């Protein structure tokens, strides 16, 4: 058991137990940097890592711990799930830390609101991932005579045809529901625009869900599948990224965690690969924010350590260190990005810009919008449509409308 027993000489120190599922590569290094920060404050870090399942396994363990009255100090929870936990009355109010550190002035309101319950901070964000990225292999582009990233869906299909004629798989894809939906989300935003996205994926309205625009979105989405390869079903996202890294595929729709794969393969942005917003989404930003929610504790030393953790997560030093390791960008709006690569700088510039224009949008594919029940239901329909050519766009739109209104 990490941590040991508090001694009389370390009376001011407290143990902070943190549940997370960052157990590999850059993620593990990122967690280690947070542990080091806490230990500098005199606190004892107790690692509660639960690998696998994108956090599903971790949530199962967390529920049993909370129900037994033995909650950790903090747990990796994000999006509407934070509100669901808060409704149970088990989350701690860390507003005093947030107020002292002026979080409201350094976070976009749309992000800050996700971290709050009834106006009180109950969670702290560690990073921002941009989801609506298109990644391209420059080697594949040269072979296919492609000179730039497509900025419209018509350009995307023309580019895909060039890759196909050059004997290159146009689009690397992994047929898992969240990957299907990541691509769908890009199409929906690119075809429908930010207001349509909000009316279908953030605060769903029946009229928008059942509109001709949704039919057009679905028809555009279906046109993409023939440009993927027959081995796509069930493929992990990082294996799809490897196809682009090797030049076997020309493009991939994926969040900026894919960049970590390129960098690990010693590929340089702008030279070996391109990062560009998905077609039609240049002025928009779909986000996936990782965060830690804080649970109610009774021990004064542990509460102090918990507050130290909240403060450390949002500190500029940690935001820089963590995000350089994770491949994401800082969630603070006023950060110095001199150490970050060109893709991260582009991402941060657009993050700041869209936070002012109302086009900073939560990703459904990555648990930032809709209730978990509604998001799961919508993902199911979209994957059914992707995999079943006999399901019409009109029928799929009706099913998506029913699913999205599930709360």
What can you see in these coordinates?
- The chain has helices spanning 25-40, 56-67, 80-87, 95-100, 103-106, 109-114, 138-144, 153-165, 177-192, 194-202, 206-209, 212-224, 237-245, 258-264, 300-314, 316-326, 342-357, 372-387, 393-404, and strands at residues 15-20, 44-49, 74-76, 116-117, 120-121, 123-125, 129-130, 133-137, 169-171, 249-253, 273-277, 285-288, 291-294, 360-362.
- Helix 1 runs antiparallel to helix 16 (316-326), helix 7 (138-144) packs across helix 8 (153-165) and helix 9 (177-192) crosses helix 12.
- Helix 1 links the parallel strand 1 and strand 2 (44-49).
- Helix content is 49%, strand content 13%.
- The chain is built from 19 helices and 14 strands.
- It is globular, with a radius of gyration of 22 Å.
- The chain has 407 residues and is of the alpha/beta class.
- The strands form 4 sheets. It has a 5-stranded mixed sheet. The protein has a 4-stranded mixed sheet with strand order 9-10-8-11. It has a 3-stranded mixed sheet with strand order 7-12-14.
